[in-house]
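Quick one: structure tokens for this chain, please?
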Amino acid sequence: MNNSYRTHTCGELNINNVGQEIKLSGWVQRIRNLGAMKFIDLRDQYGITQIVISDQEKFKEQLDLIVTECVICVKGTVIERSNKNEKIATGEIEIDAKEITILGKCKNTLPFEVNSEKADINSVREDLRLEYRFLDLRNERIHNIILLRSQVMKTLREKLYELGFSEIQTPILANSSPEGARDYLVPSRLHPGEFYALPQAPQQFKQLLMVSGFDKYFQIAPCFRDEDPRADRAPGEFYQVDFEMSFADQEDVFNVLQELFITTFKKHTTWKVDDGPFIQIPYKEAIEKYGIDKPDLRNPLIIQDATNIFENTEFNAFKDKTIKAIVVPNGSEQGRKFFDNMTEYAVEELGAKGLAWTKFDNENNVSGGIAKFITDDVKSELQNKLGVKPNDSIFFIADEFKTAQKIAGGVRIELGKRLDLLEKNVYKFCLITEFPMYELSDEGTIDFNHNPFSMPKGGMEALLNQDPLDIVAYQFDVVCNGYEMASGAVRNHDPELMVKAFEIAGYTEKDVETRFGALYKAFQYGTPPHAGAAPGLDRMIMLIADSQNIREVIAFPKNKKARDVLMNAPSNVTQEQLNDVHISVLEEK
């Protein structure tokens, strides 16, 4: 490093540089005035170096303007520190300033503390942090997360090139496609009344690349979906590591996914990472055991069915209901308040009608909650069928089948948190397989459950002869610590099969030809079997960085209301701009 602003970075000087004349530039992180001498901690991306100013009179003009977070250039001599600081790499030396130049002034008052001893970035209102994101990104932790993102992307690219993939970009201005969310539409100036759509995923393009004879494709692709934001889902746009392979089946994709995740996580974290192969859990089993299709396997609790056990119960809340049970080992140690709080959570947060419970003491006596309805026969079955042991507690959820499963899944997650049951410092991966091809929509019609371009198990025979809701597809997710990390599938590459699959979901062949004309046409000119997947980059960084908020791992994210408060987007545009793209805005009444 040698230019007009610096000969070194703020993180590289050490005792071997003593006596050298150097030049550093960076941000003022801290100023300490010890009377005759003044000390400045100078920071750049690479570290911190202490600057000592022994002749304050010489630098009076500059010192009057130097405040924290302004940018300065210091020319001076490297000297050995008398009070060494082992916490930083440059802690053995300091710079005796000979010249100081202010490169970038800063206001005296910051909107919030960035890197000072008083800085607690998490206590700052998020919209204020996002409005001043350029300051927020100076915070050491946030800054390092963005640099981590860069390193992870490098690792992913290197691994994919090593596995024989070619990086190819696909269009951003595309067509509308039923990917399960609302499209972002872009009006066309040249074609009045017509619209592009920002791609929800490069799905059709990557399949067309396989038809075009490219063997293995990938890109770190931007995807756009008009979805409501969540803590683990960025609004509007996100990035995925999109890849596709010709002449590949499901296991081929599993192998690539495992290579990508294991390599990347092991390189960028000190936590324990599964070696693979990842556990495969069919969708139906995942819902039965965990109440969710993205189970956190760090949580040892499982959901069991107790419907038959209470077949002849006198407890009205259980009659004619599906009953799910969660056995908590040594759960009887908890007091009544814990059980009441869990009931309150299930009712208020999960929409449960109630949460029944009971517990066994060390002599297998039943007490608390619904103990009076636990007859000797029921007690015996709880022990034999559910494996209840002395000092265990049991939580029961009774409702309609799907509702009981869903609420039980939420109760399981919350019990894991409140009882601190989650295994620490470990990434637990699994593959959720055999997703249903179709589901019932809110209107009661048949709709695609996951990815409309997937191959159904059993092919055309399944589409012709099975109940659509019983058909499973070669669709799968990678799940890690309760987060969906990737989705993939073996693709439907047969045009007749494709038409039939869409027909079941209410599309005519004409609809398919109109909406997916490129694929429909291409599939009639020699299409190889192909399969692929798309790990989510943002969630991957979120887990590796041990962050609870996906907005922290994106350089310039939208807020919880999908607004960019830094750049003021979305915003109004001029009437002239609207006229150019043939758009009129209806005012809300």
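The two ends are 61 Å apart (CA to CA).
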